[in-house]
Amino acid sequence: ILKRSKMIASFWSISVLLCLVNLGVSLIAEDPLRMGLKQMGFQGAIFVPGEIGYHKFRLGHTGTCKFAFPKLVARPRTSADVAFGVMLARSENISLSVRSGGHGYLCQHLKNNSLHLDLRRLNHMHLLTPDPEKNLPLRLNLGPGSTWGRVLKQFPISRYSMVHGQCTTVGVGGYLLGGGVNFVGTSSKLGSGSQNVMEYTMISATGDLLKVSENAIQTLHLNESVKDTLLEPKNDLFFALKGAGSSFGIVTNFLYQIYDEPETQPVLVPIFFRGPSNYQDSVNLRHDLGCDWCYWTLVIWNGPKRPLFFANDPPPDQKGIYTLDFTCQYDPHSSAQAKRCENVVQLAKARMSKIAEEEGEHLNQYYNTPSCDINGRPFYERYWHHHYETLLAQKQIWDPTNLLTHCHAVGSTDEDCCPTV
Ligand SMILES: *[C@@H]1O[C@H](CO)[C@@H](O)[C@H](O)[C@H]1NC(C)=O
Ligand SMILES: *[C@@H]1O[C@H](CO)[C@@H](O)[C@H](O)[C@H]1NC(C)=O
Ligand SMILES: *[C@@H]1O[C@H](CO)[C@@H](O)[C@H](O)[C@H]1NC(C)=O
């Protein structure tokens, strides 16, 4: 009897609860944007402000980017879902922000009042075996929403080589769309990540599904049946996707060449900068000079393949090009500290520039480590130098209304846009 009465009690409490939940749902007006997406057939989850999922999926890796609030956060499960997001943003005339799978420090992927697409559910990875008859190498179909840590767990470096982000929290999408450099040697051997992408499946700024490869652009219906094939002997969209991809499309699949051999292990040679105490120097940089955090990355390109957008296309026999990345971050809310850090970095940069020019080089910047340098060369020259005209022409063709934009995107004009974290 005791048992039964308990069961009845719990039955009643569940019914009351369900009844309240039902009431609650019918009392709260459904968000019109969410309703719009659902009506189009959007399959993934959609969250609006106030919901737990909104706060969970809005924030970047390790909780960064706290100060930007999209109108809604949608988590596409298919290319068609992404297309619906683009179409709704267009028809409602609201901005679009997109993130792929990994970390990011500058928050270019998240905008206030935007329709925000979180691509982390698009994280498939499928191995395609080589087909010698068709001259097809070993490949992966990779979704943008994975991290490289996740990819390498399934396709370990003890068996396969591929160009990947070194840090396990680097995202597949952002990495491959911004060039994709492996800093510990794999890029010297196999080129940049983007050089190994054979085909992009993407949603364009008009919501069209495209497959883009070296010599062709295919338009497809959302059910993936082919609408049209354009043969492009010189495919500048393919080129643009390799080093400035986020300005041209939302990629939902990368057909990615990998290699059936273990990854060559790098030998890392630490280089100590002379000074009374290197440790003390870095402490000074952080505290006395106003920066919260600084780091150096030194890469020596001594292999046959160089990244597309680096080093101004040096002749292939030229060895020993190096890149040196010096990155500092500071608290933008403390303006005196920020100013001090910025000045120090500018000074260091001017000196390094001068030395580089004396050596017959000039400084270029890796797109995936962007920065605002309002006193230096314009951002488009730093990232893409003489390729920028090609990129602008492609932008005009594929995204004339500039839907796919963010700080330092192709076609943007704001130099000093690095957002506050
Ligand atoms: C977004 O809007 C909020 C509230 O209006 C504001 O505090 C914040 O600085 C804005 N963030 C960005 C990135 O513009
Ligand atoms: C779209 O929004 C922008 C800025 O939010 C505004 O300037 C523009 O007039 C709007 N266009 C239409 C067609 O409503
Ligand atoms: C795919 O969609 C198009 C356009 O809606 C339609 O004409 C075609 O028959 C569909 N194909 C398949 C295989 O469902």
Question: What does this entry show, briefly?
Answer:
Among the domains are: 1-30; 32-121, 2-Layer Sandwich (Uridine Diphospho-n-acetylenolpyruvylglucosamine Reductase, domain 2), CATH 3.30.43.10; 267-358, no CATH class; 379-417, no CATH class.
The CA-CA distance between the termini, in Å, is 60 Å
Task: Name the hetero compounds present.
Answer: 2-acetamido-2-deoxy-beta-D-glucopyranose
Following the backbone from N to C, one meets helices and strands in this order, namely HHEHEHEEEEHHHEEEEHEHEEHHH
Query: From the alpha-carbon coordinates, what is the Rg to the nearest angstrom?
Result: 24 Å
| Unreliable residue runs | 1-27, 271-276
Count the strands?
13
Give me the secondary-structure category.
alpha+beta
Strand order of the largest sheet: 5-6-11-7-8-9-10
Tally of separate helices: 12
Integer average pLDDT: 83
Helix proportion of residues, in percent?
Answer: 25-40%
Q: DSSP strand (E) fraction? A: 15-25%
Largest sheet: 7 strands, antiparallel
Description:
This is FAD-binding PCMH-type domain-containing protein. InterPro entries: FAD-bd_PCMH, FAD-bd_PCMH-like_sf, FAD-bd_PCMH_sub1, FAD-bd_PCMH_sub2, FAD-linked_Oxidoreductase, Oxid_FAD_bind_N, Oxy_OxRdtase_FAD_BS. Pfam families: FAD_binding_4. With 421 residues, the protein is α+β, with helices and mostly antiparallel strands. Among the domains are: 1-30; 32-121, Uridine Diphospho-n-acetylenolpyruvylglucosamine Reductase, domain 2 (2-Layer Sandwich); 267-358, no CATH class; 379-417, no CATH class. Mean pLDDT is 83; it is low at 1-27 and 271-276. The N and C termini lie far apart (60 Å). It has helices spanning 2-27, 32-40, 52-58, 79-91, 148-154, 172-177, 186-190, 236-244, 278-286, 335-358, 379-384, 388-398; strands at residues 45-47, 72-75, 96-99, 115-118, 125-128, 139-142, 197-203, 209-213, 216-220, 226-231, 250-257, 293-301, 321-329. Helix 8 crosses helix 12 (388-398). The strands form three sheets. Strands 5-6-11-7-8-9-10 form a seven-stranded antiparallel beta sheet. It binds 2-acetamido-2-deoxy-beta-D-glucopyranose (3 copies). One 2-acetamido-2-deoxy-beta-D-glucopyranose binds at residues 221, 223, 225. One 2-acetamido-2-deoxy-beta-D-glucopyranose binds at residues 67-69, 112, 419.
